[in-house]
Structure formats: C-alpha cells, structure tokens
Design brief:
By secondary structure, the protein is an alpha/beta fold. The chain has ten helices and 16 strands. It has two domains: 132 residues, NAD(P)-binding Rossmann-like Domain (Rossmann fold, 3-Layer(aba) Sandwich); 196 residues, Dihydrodipicolinate Reductase, domain 2 (2-Layer Sandwich). The strands form three sheets. An eight-stranded mixed sheet has the order 8-11-12-7-13-14-15-16. Strands 3-2-1-4-5-6 form a six-stranded parallel sheet, sandwiched between helices. The longest helix has 19 residues. Bound molecules: alpha-L-sorbopyranose. Alpha-L-sorbopyranose binds next to helix 8. This is Gfo/Idh/MocA family oxidoreductase.
Length: 396
C-alpha cells in the first residue's frame, strides 16, 4: 500500500496563467492518483505579494514569499516549480538544483542554448545525488498524444515518412493587443517559435521517438509595434489604437521544415495569427502502414488510419481516448466523459512525483528541453540566413 504520509514540500515561483495551471495540478493530483508522496503546497512566490497572496488563498498555498532565493533557502521546500518568464529559468533552476531541490520548470527550458546547457549540466549533476529536474512540456501528458506515442512505438504506423506539426493560436490578430512579456525578446527569448513552436517540436520528437537533425525556417513579425499599456486580463488582452506604442521584438509566426533521424520529413508551423484557431496544437503522422492525426481543440480524440485494412473499408477512425486502458484516463471519469487543458498539468505532477519517489529521472528531462532549445536556435539561425533563399521571378 502507498505510504502517503511521506510529504513533498512544494514551492512555486509565479502565479499567473501557468502558475494557476500548476497550482490546481498540485492540489488535484493526490485526489485522483495514488501518489507515493503527498505534495504539500508550502509556499507561492511572486514579487507582487498582494497578487501572490490572492492566488495562494484561491489554491490553498500555505504561505507566500516575495523572493525566490528565500523560497529555495527554506528547509520545508523539497521541490521548486518555476512558472516565470524564460529569462529567469536558468538562474532559479540552477540555484534550486545546487541547493538540493527537485525542479519542475515551465517550457521552453530557457531563452538561449547556452542557458539550457547550463541547466542540463546542473540537472545531470543533481541527478547523481537523487535530485531530479523536469521541463513542463505538458502536452505529452494529453492521453491521446501519449497513446499516439504508444501506437508508433508498437510499430502500428510502420516506417514514419511525414510529420505535420502545427500550433495555431489567434490572440495577436488584433494589432491593438498590447505589449506583454511574451512579445519582449529579452524576457521570452522568442515569440511563437519558443512559446508554442517548442511544444510541437517536443510533441513530434516524443510521439515519433526520433530526434530532429536539421531544419530550414522562416520567421515573421506582422505587427511590429503595439500599445505599451492595456488590459492584460486575458492571454492577449485589449488595448487602444490611440495609445503610445512600443516595439514587438519577437516573431509572430514561425514555419520550418525538418529532417528526423528516422528519415521522416517534418513541416512545422507556429503562429499567433491563425484567425479562428484558439489552441489548435496539431500533429499528423504518416507511416508506411498507417497514419494518425490529433488536434488539441478536440483533445479527447485521436484519428487513426490502418493502411493494412482492405481499401474499400479503410479510413481514418475517430478514437475517443477515454478508456481505462488509455494513458491516464482510468483515474478520471467513465469512458466518454472527457478531459480538458488542466489535466495535462495534473498528469505532469503525477509522473514527476512517481519518478522522484522511485529515484528515476523524470521525462522530459532538462536534456530533452535542451534538445528542443537546439531546434529553436537552429530555426532562428536558418531564418536569418538568406543565402539559401531563392527569389521567385515575378512578371512585370
Ligand atoms: C500562450 O501561447 C500559451 O499559454 C503557452 O505559453 C502555453 O505553453 C500553452 O499551453 C497555451 O498557450
């Protein structure tokens, strides 16, 4: 029987959108999954103590800190969960690991490859002492995507030839959506590429079990200045056309082709300008014996095509991924009673706590995060290099 009397003291840095997603996960996980350690929500950390306290009250955090260094120094904190902008990840994560705290860090792992390498080195060193780090590529924990990986690993698709990966959002289509940290390169590292492109890079490598080995990409910024001030109560928020404007320093959209180690050809797109698409994180994989297709806007479904079936009856089948034998779903509701965005974060906590208790490296590790960071950096380098771009002659 599980000894739930063993506790895991959690300290979380950041309390906004991702902070709330993580907070609910720490609270919910032990109610649905038999965890080997019971998470204690010891402290929530944020520079705006009043705002942090309000979120702490909402989710049941026991205390509030205003300085992440103080959080790390506390004896009752065993794990530091980092939900802050990318420019802070390396410093907090490395300090926490060196202090002997397990770390969960939001994606992308860092803003640069150099920072990600530092983090991966610190994580490898900590792991030798039984202290573990994981990066939050949450979509891996969507049951349908986890199931897709199982199908590919079982050989159901045969040889993988194509990976079509898209992450489509539309929260920047209005040119008067105000500036925020996600539009500032010094804070976010990059735009759509790192914020959402990173998710599909990880998901593609995870589902296929194969690494991306080369890329060729383009980046676009469609709206290069936006209101400096505005309402940030939603992801994009709203601003005024008459307001003072400041520069957007990141990409609005990224597109790239990719080669995989297994020989597959990938086509990737990440954009915040896909009008009408709210959170369409999509993956379609074509293999010699079958294919699969996923769209997060219908996250409980996986479409599967079996090319070994007779042609006259073959076709994409729509599988509702809510059976007790599907990944994660047995802990929740009866078949057909689907899951939502927040469940990926809960599954992330479950897998992390299980790995820590078992003394095993949780995945995606910081090394996995570094591999994604290298893909992002290669896309940026490729996008800056015009030497291989060929102009298409236009009739006068
Ligand atoms: C914004 O684009 C965002 O919140 C990402 O930062 C998250 O990682 C993704 O899960 C949803 O969209």
């Amino acid at each position: 029987m599980t000894d739930t009397s063993r506790e895991l003291g959690v300290g979380q840095v950041g309390y906004a959108f991702m902070g709330a997603a993580h907070s609910q996960a720490w609270r919910t996980a032990p109610s649905f999954f038999p965890l080997p350690l019971t998470p204690r929500l010891r402290a929530l950390c944020g520079r705006d103590v009043g705002a942090a306290q309000a979120v702490a009250d909402r989710f049941g955090w026991e205390s509030v800190e205003s300085d992440w260094r103080a959080l790390i120094a506390r004896d009752d904190i065993d794990l530091v969960d980092i939900c802050t902008p990318g420019n802070t990840h390396a410093e907090i994560a490395v300090a926490a690991l060196r202090a002997g705290k397990h770390v969960l860090c939001e994606k992308p792992l860092a803003n640069t490859v150099e920072e990600a390498e530092l983090m991966a080195d610190a994580a490898a060193e900590a792991a030798t002492q039984g202290v573990y780090a994981m990066v939050g590529f949450t979509y891996r924990r969507t049951p349908a995507l986890s199931f897709a990986r199982r199908l590919v690993a079982d050989g159901r698709l045969g040889t993988i030839r194509h990976v079509r990966a898209q992450y489509l959002q539309d929260w920047l289509t209005d040119p008067d959506v105000p500036l925020s940290w996600r539009l500032d390169k010094s804070l976010a590292g990059s735009g759509a590429l790192g914020d959402i492109g990173a998710h599909v890079v990880d998901a593609a490598q995870y589902v296929t079990g194969s690494a991306i080995t080369s890329v060729s990409g383009v980046l676009r910024t469609f709206v290069d200045s936006r209101p400096v001030a505005g309402d940030h109560s939603t992801l994009g928020g709203s601003g005024s056309a008459d307001a003072e404007r400041g520069p957007v320093t990141v990409d609005d959209a990224a597109a790239f082709t990719a080669s995989f180690a297994n020989g597959a050809l990938g086509v990737f797109e990440a954009t915040r300008f896909a009008t009408g698409r709210k959170n369409a994180m999509r993956l379609e994989i074509s293999g010699s014996d079958g294919a699969l297709a996923f769209d997060f806007e219908e996250m409980n479904l996986l479409q599967v095509y079996d090319a070994t079936e007779p042609a006259e009856t073959a076709g994409f089948r729509r599988i509702v991924v809510t059976e007790p034998t599907h990944p994660y779903t047995g802990a929740w509701w009866p078949p057909g009673h689907g899951l939502g965005y927040e469940h990926g974060f809960t599954h992330q906590v479950v897998d992390l706590v299980d790995a820590i208790a078992a003394g095993e490296q949780p995945r995606p590790s910081f090394a996995d995060g570094l591999s994604v960071q290298r893909v992002l950096a290669a896309v940026e380098t490729s996008a800056e290099d015009d030497s291989r771009r060929h102009t298409v002659p236009q009739d006068a």
